[in-house]
Amino acid sequence: MINNDTIQLLKECDLGSKMAVSSIDEIMDEIRDSSLKQILSKSKEHHKALGNELHSMLLQYGSGEKDPTPIAKGMSWIKANMKMGMDHSDATAADLITDGCNMGIKTLHKHLNQYDAANEPSRNICKRLIAIEDTLYRDMQAYL
């Protein structure tokens, strides 16, 4: 039997991967630098692939997905559009993505600690998501 911590950790990771994909989508049309666009596209694909794994695990464990709340998506959209509206630069886009990565890394570590009884496969997938976020964070530094 799968414990509640496992399900909750997977749901939080699922939410995080969806928010990352949504955030990248929000700014992709504003990106001018082809290398930055490629980095973001690659990261988006990593997040989507991990999201598919998370979805499969949740289904296997008899649970559904966790979608971002309309408020969370709306706040993210407002922040991105306000900042990009004031400055349509790649540096602004990199700054937004960096903020999102920081929030994601912090939140995922919090959930790893909070759901400490989660099984090892769910803890490992969470750590993989943290690694994806960390890589994207480091990749954005050259564009700030």
CATH topology: Ferritin
How many structural domains in the coordinates? 1
Name the CATH architecture: Up-down Bundle
Estimated share of beta-strand residues: under 5%
Span from first to last CA?
Answer: 47 Å
Structural class: mainly alpha
Q: What's the total helix number?
A: 5
Largest sheet: none
Residue ranges: pLDDT <50 for 5 or more in a row?
Answer: none
Task: Chart the SSEs and their pairings.
Blueprint: H1 4-28, H2 34-60, H3 70-86, H4 90-114, H5 120-140
Helix pairs in contact: 1-2, 1-3, 1-4, 1-5, 2-5, 4-5
Q: Concise description?
A:
The chain is mainly alpha-helical and 144 residues long.
Description:
This protein has helices spanning 4-28, 34-60, 70-86, 90-114, 120-140. With 144 residues, the protein is mainly alpha-helical. The radius of gyration is 15 Å and the shape is elongated.
Describe this protein with a few key phrases.
mainly alpha, single chain, 5 helices, elongated, 80% helix, Ferritin
